[in-house]
Structure formats: C-alpha cells, structure tokens
C-alpha cells in the first residue's frame, strides 16, 4: 500500500506543476457546462477521453454501469449526483457514457440469462454489487429478451451497452427533476475495436431519445462521422 501511495503522490507532483495556476476562476464556485455519467471502470479515463484539462468544465459522475438512477423508499429516481449540477450549477448538457465490454452490463446479462456472476463461479455477490446489478436488471431485462437469435455473449453485451445507455437517457428525459432546457446525449466509448474505429473513440448513439443512425446523422451533420450503433432494435 505504501509503495502505491508513494507512486500516486509522485504523480500528483506532476499534476501540481501543470494545474496549480488553473484554479483561480473556480476557487469559490463551479459552473460546469457538462455533466458526464461514466462507468467507474478503470479503463474509462473520464476527463482524458474528452481531452479536458480545465478545472470546473466537467462535472463527472461515475458508478458501475453508468446509471443515472437511484432507489428510494418512494421508488426509482434520478440520482442526486447527476441532478446537483443541473439544478444548482447551471450545467447545460448531460452525456451518458457507456463503454464496450462493460463488466456491469456483462454481470447483469449473466444474471438475467442464468449465467454465473460471481468471481468464484457460484453467482453470489456482496449485497452492494447485487444492488447495482438489480438496478441494471430492471432496465436490461427487456433488452435481453429482444436480442437477435444466435448472438454470442460478447456481441450481446455490447448491444446491451447501447441499450443501457438508451434507458438511462430515457430516465433523464422522463424525469420532472431534470430542467427542460438541459440537453441529453448517450455515447459509447470504444477501446476494443468494436465499432471498427480507433481505440478510444466516442460514438454517439442517442441524442434526446433519437436512436436512428440515419436520422441522427442528418440532424447533426457536424458530428455525423461519430454517429454509429451496433444495434437498431
């Protein structure tokens, strides 16, 4: 532990050298333009994937499965982590960021199809992980049922990554707590060559609930080259 911590602190010195002069305008408040909801996967470099080096520009939320929802006694609602910058900091855009090969989606797919989800092969998980899988299962159950016949596990998971992004976008669009003037977009971060692009590319799969690739490319020609989907169900 001490070796790892020492290494982190050494790398922080590099960070300090680069960023110590960049916090002047955000000392007392923040007004991020964009909220990103990413999967808390170590391979998803939340600020780096956008090339962001500006403190105060992105409000980054992360959890396994890039969920925008949480459960309460009153039901499932949009998470306060996501709502806070929209309600209190004036953020204009929410981007839900799924990624290829998502472990949370894989675990949920295995759970829904009777496969093993536990690391020991028994299917058992600690309650905290089961809670997250159960939350995703509510959204992915219909997607699993709609998968094409004969699709293999890897292809199924990557299709469900898109499906999950769509359902999280829907949750934001349907919520009365999300201000009406906030734009909502869903994307997939690909570091596995699934979309036949370059590793690290972001592919737009959903804009304000629209998922038709041709319609999205026509409506957003400035990013048409980045609009793509594996599954138009």
From TrEMBL:
EC class name: lyase
Cofactor: Zn(2+)
Family affiliation: Belongs to the beta-class carbonic anhydrase family.
Organism: Halospeciosus flavus
Enzyme Commission number: 4.2.1.1
Keywords, alphabetical: Lyase, Metal-binding, Zinc
Molecular function GO labels: carbonate dehydratase activity; metal ion binding
InterPro entries: Carbonic_anhydrase, Carbonic_anhydrase_sf
Keyword Metal-binding among UniProt keywords: yes
This protein's name: carbonic anhydrase
Source taxon at top rank: Archaea
UniProt catalytic activity: hydrogencarbonate + H(+) = CO2 + H2O
Keyword Metal-binding: yes
SMART domains: Pro_CA
Alphabetical list of Gene3D superfamilies matching this protein: Carbonic anhydrase (3.40.1050.10)
Cofactor: record remark: Binds 1 zinc ion per subunit.
Entry binding sites for Zn(2+): 39, 99, 102
